[in-house]
């Protein structure tokens, strides 16, 4: 209960107070002995007397320091004597065992213990009107517990007090907290005047007696239940335990464990079989690998002798290929002479005495036939270079003289038709069509990209891909350059090729005798009439003879 409770009268009459109405107990002004209390009061009286304040010299003297330390030690002993750790116990009559023991409160002189509920106690406790309170305490200098006090309290003799504020409690004073307020034996009762209120009808005597009889019946039923429970427990304790159910549970548990272990054994055996099969397969693979390794080592040992000769042959063949490429590029440079153009802009060249401007040109002044023929010669030269340099062009070229074409099979063309035209002309269109002009410029661009790819295959960097003839001349110059002499042409050259092709044609025409005579006659005619003329800058080379 709070000490600031509102002023009021007790709700429960004194003759009706029972232990079930008790909620808590407080202890005020702990005193372990009467002598110590008298000494403490005497010390308080001395402390209230005014003392002379010593000067600085007197306070610094050893005797003043000693008196101060002695007084401080005495006060500390008095304080320690009045403080301690406390708990209490509640007893009924002279029973040794308490029916309630409080918690322990530490290092204080005034204690407010935790509230409790005695309504759940047996009727002999909850209906009792008196109780024995025993208080126990201990101090730091005495570790053992000391019996402080014992009060036999009759709840009917308790006096109602309004509040704990402004009261001077005697040593070891007990304050009882009941449902309707604070009670004590050390103070007179303070009961306020009853408020004038009209009478209210309450329960009749018969109703109260019925309620009492009902409560007694419930108590008897609870006591009977407790007797039956104790009797049943006694019978069960005397009869031997039946271990059948426990044994069945143990057997079922053992069977489950055995089944689990059998499954684990089967899985382990299956795993062991798989591992054995895997190990056998691996051992066989290791044996086959060692055999293959031994065979490869024997083969390597047998071929190691010829490796040096193969390397020498490879180097000689690569040198011969390089020499033949130099000779072919030199021949191509002679067959397709690329010469600078006089009295023209820088980097203006002619191919076979036909001027070919760079990608930027004046379409109004350019000769369509000359420009188309020059582009056809450049496409033919690029196509030959891809064969001799063993580097395929990304955009195939179809050299048809002044009607050459370039094909783009890579790019995504913006054409609405299902199969867009991928051949782009290398000649100027007739009639000045815008689409034709665009296709011609794109075809020229593809030719320049092919020339750039050929230069890149030989490790050359092109400054501007729009310079078609300068890039071709640069490529031919680099591919034909070298410190050694050019190798000679193989005997039989073009004549042998023509003879072999004509003999094949003759064999496929007539019978054996007629075919032979016809072949000889056609061969003679072909040798006399079949002349391949390659036009260069004023140079004619008679290939047939």
Automatic annotation (TrEMBL):
UniProt-listed InterPro entries: UV_resistance/autophagy_Atg14 (IPR018791)
Annotated coiled-coil segments of the chain: 211-278
A matching Pfam family: ATG14
Superkingdom: Eukaryota
One of the GO biological process terms: SNARE complex assembly
UniProt keyword list: Coiled coil
GO cellular component, one term: protein-containing complex
Keyword Acyltransferase attached: no
Molecular function as annotated in GO: SNARE binding
Similarity field: Belongs to the ATG14 family.
Protein name (database record): Autophagy-related protein 14
């Amino acid at each position: 209960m709070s000490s600031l409770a509102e002023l009021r009268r007790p709700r429960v009459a004194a003759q009706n107070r029972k232990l079930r109405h008790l909620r808590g107990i407080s202890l005020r002004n702990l005193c372990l002995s009467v002598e110590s209390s008298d000494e403490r009061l005497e010390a308080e009286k001395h402390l209230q007397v005014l003392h002379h304040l010593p000067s600085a010299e007197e306070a610094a003297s050893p005797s003043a320091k000693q008196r101060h330390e002695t007084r401080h030690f005495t006060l500390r002993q008095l304080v320690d004597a009045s403080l301690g750790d406390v708990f209490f116990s509640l007893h009924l009559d002279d029973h040794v065992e308490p029916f309630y023991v409080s918690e322990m409160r530490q290092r204080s002189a005034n204690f407010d213990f935790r509230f409790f509920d005695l309504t759940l106690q047996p009727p002999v406790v909850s209906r009792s009107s008196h109780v024995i309170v025993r208080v126990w305490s201990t101090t730091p200098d005495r570790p053992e517990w000391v019996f402080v006090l014992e009060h036999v309290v009759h709840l009917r003799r308790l006096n109602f007090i309004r509040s704990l504020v402004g009261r001077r409690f005697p040593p070891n004073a007990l304050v009882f907290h009941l449902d309707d307020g604070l009670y004590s034996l050390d103070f007179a009762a303070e009961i306020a005047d009853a408020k004038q209120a009209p009478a209210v009808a309450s329960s009749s005597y018969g109703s109260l007696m019925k309620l009492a009889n009902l409560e007694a019946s419930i108590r008897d039923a609870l006591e009977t239940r407790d007797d039956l429970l104790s009797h049943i427990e006694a019978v069960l304790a005397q009869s031997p335990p039946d271990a059948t159910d426990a044994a069945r549970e143990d057997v079922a548990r053992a069977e489950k464990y055995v089944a689990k272990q059998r499954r684990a054994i089967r899985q382990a055996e299956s795993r062991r079989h798989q591992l054995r099969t895997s190990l056998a397969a691996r051992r066989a693979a290791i044996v086959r690998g060692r055999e293959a390794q031994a065979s490869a080592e024997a083969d390597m040992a047998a071929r190691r002798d010829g490796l040096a000769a193969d390397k020498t042959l490879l180097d000689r063949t690569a040198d011969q290929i390089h020499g033949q490429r130099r000779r072919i590029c030199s021949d191509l440079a002679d067959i397709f002479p690329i010469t600078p153009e006089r009295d023209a802009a820088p980097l203006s060249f002619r191919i076979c005495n036909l001027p070919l401007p760079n990608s930027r040109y004046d379409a109004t002044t350019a000769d369509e036939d000359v420009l188309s023929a020059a582009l056809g010669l450049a496409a033919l030269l690029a196509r030959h270079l891809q064969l001799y340099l063993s580097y395929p062009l990304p955009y195939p070229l179809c050299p048809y003289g002044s009607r050459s074409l370039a094909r783009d099979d890579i790019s995504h063309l913006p054409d609405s038709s299902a199969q867009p035209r991928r051949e782009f002309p290398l000649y100027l269109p007739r009639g000045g069509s815008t689409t034709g002009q665009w296709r011609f410029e794109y075809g020229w661009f593809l030719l320049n990209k092919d020339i750039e790819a050929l230069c890149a295959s030989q490790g050359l960097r092109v400054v501007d891909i729009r310079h078609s003839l300068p890039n071709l001349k640069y490529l031919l110059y680099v591919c034909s350059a070298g410190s050694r002499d050019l190798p000679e042409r193989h005997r039989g050259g073009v004549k042998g090729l023509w003879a072999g092709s004509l003999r094949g044609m003759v064999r496929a025409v007539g019978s054996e005798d007629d075919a032979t005579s016809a072949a000889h006659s056609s061969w003679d005619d072909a040798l006399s009439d079949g002349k391949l003329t390659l036009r260069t800058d004023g140079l004619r080379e008679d290939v047939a003879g």
